[in-house]
Design a protein that fits this description.
Layout: E1 10-11, H1 44-65, E2 70-71, E3 76-77, H2 86-98, E4 119-123, H3 138-162, E5 169-175, H4 189-205, E6 210-215, H5 229-232, H6 252-260, H7 269-279
Parallel strand pairs: 1-2, 3-4, 4-5, 5-6
Helix pairs in contact: 1-2, 2-3, 3-4, 4-6
Length: 280
């Protein structure tokens, strides 16, 4: 792959391996969603060992093509609703490397972290749920949830520091917020944009160790995608076939991101031009 696509310089070996259900790493291929099969699933330590092996061999392969190529950790979900949050898995991954047992099938064990990965790869979403509480304003509750989100990211970073990993960069390769509730109802899109702005402010002030942020995702999925409403509407732009809006029109979320990185501007003509380009 590195030879075929030399323009690609960064490689992620696995997606959300720390999520206990649906990780794809189950012994004997047994269905993950059957409770009676729990005893056959890999433990977090076993998965960490598998990933240490995988990272080392992927790193060796891609760097044999170009020494500038880099490998991230498998992306780690840092959301509260997963049974194995990032700290447990990231800690187990470092311990696997430190054990001297990896890589397997190699004559010499390796404990040098940057031979396994050079980037800590996190997925983190603000877990905001609207309520009708008269005791808490939107702004207060939203800021509380953004602070909790930031704490989860910082927790992962502190795990790395505890294992003397001062060289790995931290990437947030999934973040954002759907403009639909998990129950399928639309959210107030201005509120979503406000939460995204608060998140960016937090990154700029308290999470300065994060050097790359990627929003999930650029545009809503097609209305025919077959996914749930909440999954379909994470985009910064509306879907090309959303009948309620012009194709690829910028959402308030996109405007919030654009304004943040352009001095607070309210001139969104560049976003309109981008939408027009992709709708042709």
């Amino acid at each position: 792959m590195a030879e075929e696509f030399p323009e690609i310089k960064y490689f992620e070996p696995y997606n959300e391996i720390n999520v206990s259900k649906g990780s794809g790493l189950e012994r004997y291929g047994i269905a993950w969603d059957a409770e009676e099969n729990d005893a056959y699933k890999f433990s977090i330590e076993e998965r960490a060992g598998i990933m240490a092996d995988l990272c080392w061999y992927v790193s060796k392969a891609v760097k044999s093509v170009d020494r500038a190529n880099q490998v991230t950790t498998p992306s780690l979900s840092v959301d509260n609703n997963h049974s194995h949050v990032e700290g447990d898995f990231l800690d187990a991954l470092y311990k696997a490397i430190e054990s001297g047992n990896y890589p397997r099938y190699n004559d010499v064990a390796d404990t040098r972290i940057d031979n396994f990965f050079t980037i800590i790869n996190l997925h983190a979403y603000v877990e905001y749920t609207e309520s009708n509480s008269i005791f808490e304003s939107f702004d207060t509750k939203a800021q509380t949830k953004v602070n909790e989100w930031a704490d989860r990211i910082a927790y992962a970073y502190n795990i790395a520091k505890a294992h003397n990993d001062g060289g790995s960069r931290v990437w947030l390769t999934e973040t954002g917020m759907s403009t639909y509730h998990p129950d399928g109802e639309p959210r107030d899109e201005d509120n979503v944009a406000a939460i995204i702005t608060k998140s960016l402010n937090k990154l700029d002030t308290a999470l300065t160790f994060v050097d790359t942020v990627i929003f999930y995702e650029i545009a809503d999925k097609s209305t025919n995608a077959g996914a749930s409403a909440v999954e379909t509407h994470y985009g910064l732009f509306y879907a090309y076939d959303d009948l309620d809006f012009d194709p690829y029109t910028a959402k308030p979320s996109a405007k919030a991101v654009y304004s943040f990185f352009n001095g607070g501007t309210s001139d969104y003509s560049a976003l309109d031009a981008l939408a027009a380009r992709y709708s042709e």
